[in-house]
Specification:
The structure is a single chain. The protein is α+β, with helices and mostly antiparallel strands and about 170 residues long. The chain has one domain. The protein is built from six helices and four strands. Strands 1-2-3-4 form a four-stranded antiparallel sheet. Strand 3 and strand 4 form a beta hairpin. About 35% of the residues are buried. The model has no long low-confidence stretch (mean pLDDT about 90).
């Protein structure tokens, strides 16, 4: 009975993409922190509008809700895991591959950032775009997965297949 809440027609692809997002995020963070040693090297200018830099985010998106204690970071990591579990349950009932793929990306990104909170007490962010005096927030691979997943869910929600009501309603 519990299986119906944990596995659905598109759970394999969503779960596979969640795992891929986690692995890509962990690999990139390992390269940046341990191979490139960006913390020691400092800012790496890639182009005139893009840099690699290490920023430890102790909050959530855009640095909101900063948590500087271990307990605060564990609470944020716990919230990440709860959101990922809720998304997994929702994903098991999704009717479209795109929705499941999108949910999988969000799950993978959330878990990737939760791992950082447990390991480091903050999320490691690296990508910084800037141009003409404008600067975007610094983000990581997990954040890219989350944003791509949200965009996919939004696109999927506006597709025609969701707009037709069953006959008789």
């Amino acid at each position: 009975m519990l299986t119906r809440y944990l596995w659905g027609p598109h759970s394999a692809i969503g779960g596979g993409l969640a795992l891929a997002a986690i692995l890509a995020d962990r690999l990139h963070k390992w390269v940046m922190l341990d191979v490139v040693e960006i913390g020691r090297r400092g800012l790496i200018e890639v182009t005139g509008f893009f840099d690699l830099v290490l920023v430890w985010n102790q909050g959530v998106s855009y640095g909101l809700f900063q948590q500087q204690t271990a307990t605060g970071q564990l609470i944020l990591a716990g919230i990440n895991v709860i959101v990922a579990a809720a998304l997994w349950a929702w994903m098991s009932r999704m009717d479209t591959r795109l929705a499941a793929i999108s949910a999988g990306l969000i799950i993978g990104g959330a878990i990737g950032n939760a791992i950082d909170r447990v390991l480091y007490g903050a999320v490691a962010d690296f990508f910084h775009f800037h141009a003409f005096g404008w600067s975007w927030y610094v983000f990581n691979v997990a954040d890219i997965a989350i944003v791509a997943g949200v965009a996919g869910l939004l696109y999927d929600s506006f597709r025609d297949s969701h707009k037709s009501a069953p006959n008789g309603d």
